[in-house]
Amino acid sequence: MVLLAAIFSLLAMVLALVYVSKESHQVIIVLAGFVVLSVLTEFFMQKVLQREVRPRVK
Fold first, then answer.
1. Which residues span the membrane (predicted)?
2. DSSP structure class, residue 25
3. Where are the alpha helices (DSSP H) in the chain?
4. Residue 20 burial (CB count, 10 A)
5. Residue 11 and residue 9: Cα distance in Å, rounded?
6. Contact 45/52 with Cβ under 8 angstroms?
7. What are phi and psi of 18, to 5 degrees?
8. Cα–Cα distances in Å, from 4 out to 9, 15, 20?
């Protein structure tokens, strides 16, 4: 059930992005920039600061 909700949520996000990108092409550039920034931040935190991601579920 959770997987189904996640799929529908992702579908809604994609459809919203398609609709908004028709109005303004800068939306895709801004979202791509946020993704790149988050990947670089995660890489920096894991490699440079030696931060470990610990699972919460045992």
1. 26-45
2. T
3. 2-23, 26-43
4. 13
5. 5
6. no
7. -60, -45
8. 9, 16, 24
Token pair, residue 46, equals 């894991």
Place of tokens 């398609």: 18
Is residue 51 within 8 A of residue 45, CB to CB? The reply is: yes
Angle between helices 26-43 and 2-23 (to 10 degrees): 130
**Token pair recorded at residue 24:** 């303004």
Q: Which residue type, as a one-letter code, is found at position 38?
A: S
Spell out the per-residue pLDDT of the chain, length 58, in tens: 788 888 999 899 888 888 887 878 788 788 888 889 998 988 888 888 777 777 787 7
